[in-house]
Amino acid sequence: MQNFVYHNPTRIVFGKNSIRHLRDLIPQGKKILLIYGGGSIFRNGVYDQVKTALSQAEVFEFGGIEANPLYETLMKAVKLVKEKGIDFLLSVGGGSVLDGTKFIAAAACLPDGADAWGILTGETPIHSALPLASVLTLPATGSESNPNSVISRKETDEKRSFASDHVYPVFSILDPESTYSLPQKQVRNGLVDSYVHTMEQYLTYPSAAPLQDRFAESLLLTIIETAPQALMDPPIYDARAGYMWCATMALNTLIGRGVPQDWATHGIGHELTAFYGLDHAETLAIVEPSLMRHQAARKREKLLQYASRVWGLDTKDEDAAIEAAIQKTEAFYHSIGMPTRLQDYGIDADVAARRIEERFAARGTRLGEHSAIDAAAAGEIIRMAA
Description:
Layout: E1 11-14, H1 22-25, E2 31-35, H2 40-43, H3 46-53, E3 58-62, H4 71-84, E4 88-94, H5 95-107, H6 118-121, E5 132-138, E6 148-153, E7 158-163, E8 171-174, H7 184-202, H8 210-230, H9 237-250, H10 264-276, H11 280-294, H12 300-309, H13 318-335, H14 349-363, H15 375-384
Parallel strand pairs: 1-8, 2-3, 2-4, 4-5, 5-8
Antiparallel strand pairs: 6-7
Helix pairs in contact: 4-5, 7-8, 7-9, 7-11, 8-9, 10-11, 11-13, 11-15, 12-13, 14-15
């Protein structure tokens, strides 16, 4: 097992009617910026619950955060924060709103003249950030209790990420009932997102970390078991609660402590979103099976473990077991309505591969737990996903 430091400062407040606790969780006297997306919180009653809980506070609002939050939009919020002297940010929505809020929190504390996009490229260091918190309505990214954020830039067709301990949420409220109005597609996306987050920290190579392996496997099995009920309409509370907690645990940094991590599926998938506008989870479901096949030799031991422990497959014929495990993964995605091929979205694999190869070559990108996936390998993986 690798050396590690584990510290997660985010308080989780979970369960029915938990939004009312906002009044006690945010310190008195704060100027609060309420940040949200396209307006679903008005339809599902969450906005009214939040405003009631904060009726005694000074609250400003900023809406319109995109499903892939845009740098151009977020910089408008940064300007508002500075103009109004806002000193606490409250994200109300899904992971995209919260990712955008994290960027706003960091960018608002940069010195005058600093390049805010440099936060995403790594050229602008983060030394502080405004305190932030969340009311989560779409379980998927785990952003409610991690230091990560992914931001897009329309001007350059880029999607890039950053991580900083300064942007851990102070607290996150998770009420499963707030997910009841979600379209089935968004629930599907959240389930796939949670599954792949777990796989990126699990499907690498053995590192003598048996507890972390079992943590990851329990999450994968629970997502598989919970998914059909989580998609039911009318919603089932316990299924939505299980799904919501899996999404949080998949990326709150716990299962990744002490083990190698991959994240190549994400790295390639981000480019499909940047170039073609696909949902994040849609890109993951396209890339992951092909990446597993492409990297099967390097991931062999963990693929066999995955085949046996998660899918219950006989591994005597190792090659057959590995292919069967990958097919089982694809079948699971299909069972919840998630396509796994570029052709399902009308995307030419050769064109997509060339665009990604060019970008990765220009950046010198190398991905994966062995840094073995370069521009050419990424192109091969994309072509395999045709």
